[in-house]
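Internal tracking record. Fields below are filled automatically when a chain is submitted to the structure queue. Please do not edit lines marked as system-generated. If the sequence contains nonstandard residues, flag them in the REMARKS field before resubmitting.
Queue: standard
Priority: normal
Entity type: single polypeptide chain
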Amino acid sequence: EEALEILNKRHILIIISDISMPGMDGIEFLREVRRRRGIVQVIIVTASNRIDDLINAFEAGATDFLLKPLKKEEIEEALENILTKINRWKTTMKALFHKKKEPDPTQVIPFDD
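SYSTEM-GENERATED OUTPUT FOLLOWS
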């Protein structure tokens, strides 16, 4: 609940969350993050060895899924992948923004008399 309050107040792009948490579990949290801020990238971590947790996390919209004990290299790789995706989105948005500003040569512009 505290993390969701922070999400409402700050511009957050990446969240790393455990499945097992007091109160709301990580899958419920993930669903709520998706409902509030669909573009936020969420990495789910767990010590569980249940395949259902992995499936549920991806169905709920997890960007990545890591098993404990966490290895520095795995966290770095997951974050690098997310940052690559975010940078690609930024480039695409800039291109679309600039394209929108250019006049469409096929568009007929009516003259006012």
